[in-house]
Amino acid sequence: MSWTLTAADLPDLARGATLLGTGGGGDPTIGSLLVRQALGDRSLTILDPDELADDLVVIPTAQMGAPTVMLEKIPAGTEPTLALRTLEAHLGRVAQATMPIECGGINSMIPLLVAAETGLPVVDADGMGRAFPELSMETFAVYGVHGSPLALAGERGETVVIDTGDDDRQMEWLARGVTIRLGGVAHIAEYAMSGAQVRATAVPRTLSMALALGRAIRLARHAKRSPFEAIAQTLSTTLYPHVRELFAGKVTDVQRRTRDGFAKGWAQISPPDGVGQALEVEFQNENLVARLGTDVLAVVPDLICVVDAESAEPITTERLRYGQRVRVLGISTPELMRTPAALAAFGPAAFGLDVPFVPVETRVVGAPAAVG
Questions:
Q1: Highest mean pLDDT of the ranges 27-41, 119-133, 357-371
Q2: Which of 269, 271, 289, 345 is the most exposed place for a label (fewest CB within 10 A)?
């Protein structure tokens, strides 16, 4: 069922989307402020994917670039709508709805910003079910919808259209190069599709799930209950039913560099008492693999989420700092992201990891209710 979203929902939505973004997807605070300013006291219409007309024209919108750059290079706020209008002009079609390409702090907000500025509804779905660093790593592409042509806009009104036909990897490579030359951040419109194609290729209802997650964490805190149990309970009836606590401890080292348009590095999380092996989490914008010594506890496309040890507030990779007390959660990804075709696009080998994909619920034995 379709629903409405107001500015009061934004903090909960940002919190839940940041958790699902598994460390990436951009800064949630910046995105929330942009949407709040554009929305005012109005509301947005969020469309359920099952209710879309088959021929509805949907054009997803997003921000791309290194999250570390986004903390200092604040968007003007006009770029995503400019990218949408540029792609509409190129295609000769007018969007009837927009949609996220991924879950994540700012990238669950960018379509809401476009909707607030244009009056378009937003589809409750996306193309990753989490966040990934590359534009070609989409369920859209895995199941038959290609990203090209893509329109890209910069903060000074620059626009570029990239048309690589069915070659989504070449589209990503060219768009990444343009983004780097625009200072490391740009806004895009891509993967134009029909309502029927949304149902066939997208991960459904991720906006409503993010909102429910963020709300459950907040309400649990206020009631002095475990927010970790709230996370597990909220996800138990979704496409992400398995939650495992992988580790708890203190961040004792972070190595992070912005290279090739990505924030790449790793974080070391040591046991609270300093005794025993430390967990290492490797990331490329998003968390990719969690290792305890030689044991892999979780790996993409399953979600690896670093959160505050007490409040369960999610921590993005660019905000990891020495001394933070954290817990690391592993969350199972939907089955449509575990098929051979999906794993070829965004499984461990796609990131150069010599690690077989084994579901987190198999790697780490334990009931979701044990998280707490």
A1: 119-133
A2: 271
Q: How confident is the prediction for the chain on average, in pLDDT?
A: 94
Residues of the chain with CATH 3.40.1610.10: 3-204
Beta 325-331 vs 303-308: how paired, if at all? antiparallel
Q: Is domain 230-370 given the CATH code 3.40.50.880 in the classification?
A: no
DSSP output for 253-321: EEEEEEETTEEEEEEEEE-TTS-SPPEEEEEESEEEEEEETTEEEEETTSEEEEEETTT--B--GGG--
Half-sphere exposure of 13 (CA within 13 A, CB side): 26
pTM of the model: 0.94
Class of domain 3-204: alpha beta
Specify the pairing of strand 193-194 against strand 122-123: unpaired
**In this predicted structure, what is the pLDDT of residue 369?**
44
